[in-house]
Design brief:
The structure is a single chain. The chain is α/β, with parallel strands linked by helices. The chain has 2 domains: about 140 residues, Rossmann fold (3-Layer(aba) Sandwich); about 60 residues, Arc Repressor Mutant, subunit A (Orthogonal Bundle), CATH 1.10.10.10. The protein is built from 10 helices and 6 strands, in the order βαβαβαβαβαβααααα. Strands 2-1-3-4-5-6 form a 6-stranded parallel β-sheet, sandwiched between helices. The longest helix is centred in the C-terminal third of the chain and has 15 residues.
Length: about 220
């Protein structure tokens, strides 16, 4: 049986390298590529891959939010996170969003196939370097279930990331196909929920939560 794979990474060279690794395996078929989390959601809907290999830190819609949306729409699709970050915030957030595994890009050549195999079998696979982060997170004092971030809707999280990346309300509206006034309403709501009163504070919050790294 052939496993259908969708590659998601905002760097073309990385996608080409991943495709070269995966296409060596006759049981794997790369059915599509996406350069953003938003495209990944759309292509998962259209192509119905078995496994989505998801970059974590991307502009526009990060891999964490894209994973959450994909798993909500198509829970049978497995997600394997791929990242250069071993920070436990990223690891914990994308696993909580529904990813089955987390592989560091530096280890992709050796581990990616194993992670895909594990995902298709309903198992998890973590790079050794991030397994410790998962244990630390499990042992850490957890925030209360009703924490402020957990009260944000999916749309508010999208608006938060785009605001943190420097987009105006008008630009966000055009991007998300919303009116500027609707974007302003989302901004007021998320500020109220988070107890934040400026875009600068929102940006700091988004970086702290791992929604965006603001890397070029």
């Amino acid at each position: 049986m052939t496993t259908r794979v969708l590659l998601v990474d905002d760097h073309l060279l990385m996608r080409e390298g991943l495709r070269a690794i995966l296409e060596r395996e006759p049981s794997l078929a790369v059915v599509g590529e996406a350069a953003s989390g938003r495209d990944a959601v759309v292509l998962t809907r259209a192509l119905r891959p078995d496994v989505v290999i998801m970059d974590v830190a991307m502009k526009d819609l990060n891999g964490i939010e894209a994973t959450r949306q994909i798993r909500a729409e198509r829970p049978e699709a497995k997600v394997v996170a791929l990242s250069s970050h071993s920070d436990r915030r990223y690891v914990a957030a994308i696993l909580a969003a529904g990813a089955s595994g987390y592989v560091l890009k530096a280890n992709a050549y050796d581990e990616l196939r194993r992670a895909v195999d594990a995902a298709t079998q309903g198992k998890s696979h973590l790079s050794a370097e991030v397994a410790g982060a998962v244990i630390e997170t499990a042992l850490a004092v957890r925030p209360p279930a009703g924490s402020a971030y957990g009260t944000l809707s999916a749309r508010e999280r999208e608006v938060l990331q785009l605001l943190a990346e420097g987009h105006t309300s008008s630009e966000i509206g055009g991007h998300l196909h919303l009116s500027t006034s609707t974007v302003e309403t989302h901004r007021r709501n998320l500020m109220g929920k988070l107890g934040i009163h400026s875009v600068a504070e929102l940006t700091k919050y988004a970086v702290r939560e791992g929604l965006t790294s603001l890397e070029p």
